[in-house]
Amino acid sequence: MKDILFPPACPICSNPRPVIDNRKMNICPWCLKYITYIKEPACLKCGKALEDDNREYCKDCTDKQHLFNQAVSVYEYSEGIKQSIYNFKYHNKREYAEVYADEISGRYGDVINMWQPDVIMPVPIHVSKLKSRGYNQAGLIAESLSKKLNIEYNEHSLIRTRATSPMKDLNDIQRTKNLQKAFKIADNVIIYNKVLIVDDIYTTGTTIDACAECLKRAGVKEVYAVTLCVGRGF
After folding, report:
1. pTM metric for this prediction
2. Which of 13, 120, 148, 154 makes a 20 to 30 Å CA pair with 225?
């Protein structure tokens, strides 16, 4: 009844998702041309698509030692998914979270189960942004993903202590400085050995690294990450 009154929308075109062979599609087949899924070869550390079959790591991960253990992403950062995430974050398209989580679990459910995380945590947003936006987009994806994979969801242990500048206009050094002391642990997370962090976009890994540093300092042994989209690695 809910689907009839409020048809679930395709996250690319926002039209009702089609039903093909009695199965509701996550994305309209004709919208697939606007997105690109990450395919092999991909960086073994951050999950960026690679153009060179002989490489195992992208340039970023070759030059920089990340604090997280491993990360994967579903899509390459293209115009279609860029606009989709923008609508999700700023135009209250909260229903996209269910599709995003289904896409993640469909492509990386086996990988996540191999990692065996004890808990799924979203990258937190500052309380000021939460009040203005009304929701944490990463939290919606993470919560839906936790239900699909039957993994505990925790949005309270890792918190953002201060509002930070938008990362898109900053270089790598500025990104690191921007996130210094931006996160803290609100309660005892040493009960978790492995944590899976969820976010919408992976660029340089600075945000995931900052979360991983905070969690590992508190006693977590391994930190993994899954994001919706990531830039291409060279």
Report:
1. 0.90
2. 13
